[in-house]
Request: fold
Amino acid sequence: MNVILLGPPGSGKGTQAQLLSKRLESPHISTGDILRRAVGTELGDHAAEYMNRGELVPDAILIEMIRDRLSQPDTACGFILDGYPRTIPQADALASILSGLDREIEIVINIEVPDTDLITRLSARRVCTCGATYHLTFNPPQEEGVCDRCGGALYHRDDDQEESIRNRLLVYKKQTQPLIDYYANLGVLATIDGRGGIEQIAEGIYEAVAAASAR
Ligand code: ADP
Ligand code: ADP
Ligand code: ZN
Reply:
């Protein structure tokens, strides 16, 4: 299945993408993780300037990045996109890249969470360079500051500070939210309530994916 997880920052895309990736045995593609891993390269340092302000990195950079990632063979039997697309031009480019590969997006999971919860979640989020995500209260690692999955040191993202979080929520509403109608019009949208326990939400997402795969 070719899946997109859509939702505001903090809605649980990364957390859910990781679980779904295990279940479907498909790669989890997070453009945020790819950009953060590129720090130290010219492209990564350029992108970090936008990221730290809570702004979107220019479309042209993201489109090339996703074109390159989707050309890799591990995506041939399905993938889970987390954090891409974030604008209409990115969605159009994705459709054209996939059509060239004779593939298409089969389901877009739109995760809904109220803004007040998003701020609580992001201000205490801790992440690992391996892509794992934790929360100091809601999803703590077994050992404080250490990743359960790889043993790496957890850190607080520079853009998970109140001012940057507020800006990211505004950017989401203006630039990314229009994708909800975009994918609804294509008949591939499933909306999921992103409040409640992580496992329960994962179950709802899996059911929506299974229903789409049976279509
Ligand atoms: P996104 O990738 O959409 O920005 P994350 O998966 O990184 O979201 O989740 C944001 C924060 O919220 C993380 O700290 C994560 O541990 C926490 N979180 C994820 N899902 C839930 C949930 N269902 N309930 C409470 N906290 C959650
Ligand atoms: P979150 O988990 O909070 O939704 P991400 O890790 O997905 O955040 O993204 C972090 C930052 O990386 C974004 O605020 C943005 O600056 C940049 N970024 C990631 N994906 C994209 C994209 N598809 N288009 C533009 N910028 C992006
Ligand atoms: Zn890790």
About this structure: The chain has a mean pLDDT of 96. Strands lie at 2-6, 28-30, 79-82, 107-112, 125-127, 133-135, 189-193.
